[in-house]
Amino acid sequence: MSIHFHDSSAIHTASGLGSNAGDILQTTSQSILNNTFTTSNTSVQDIGLTCTITPSATSSKVIIHVVLNTEGYGDRDRRPITSIHSGAVGTSTQLARQFSGEYHTGDSGSYSYGGHTYWYLHSPSTTSAITYRVGLKSGDGSNVKVNGGSGTDLRSYMYLQEVKG
Length: 165
Fold this sequence. Notes:
By secondary structure, the protein is mainly beta. The protein is 0% helix and 49% strand. The strands form three sheets. Strands 3, 4, 5, 7, 10, 12 and 13 form a seven-stranded antiparallel sheet that branches. The protein has a four-stranded antiparallel sheet with strand order 6-11-8-9, with no helix packed on it. Strands 1-2 form a two-stranded antiparallel sheet. A hairpin with a 5-residue loop joins strand 1 and strand 2. The chain starts with a strand and ends with a strand.
């Protein structure tokens, strides 16, 4: 049996898998955030959710899959701001970021629940190991968190896939 692709290429044997641009070459094990990470810091913090991959070619790309269960609570600006990073968590290593929650006037002790999902395609141009990390910061100093969990209560996780370039 052959597998035919949109670009008119085909794979006729299992040994042909991974030979076409766009083929998934490897998938890492899932990294799970077991413990909830909470901060009120307005500077980005490393939440401890990391995953490492070693591309097989400099032309390879990496798909970063991240799912985060977020929460903001306390006063006015309850906006968790998450980000994904290549290397250490910092402004210069940020690849993408998302906001959730809400801002309103007046005091309140209520909660904002949300989720952030990343499917980001990175072109690292290396065959060295790359570690991707997740960051979290508060919009204005209110409490924000990314909820952890495991088993059937899995809430936040990451895995990586190498794509043939």
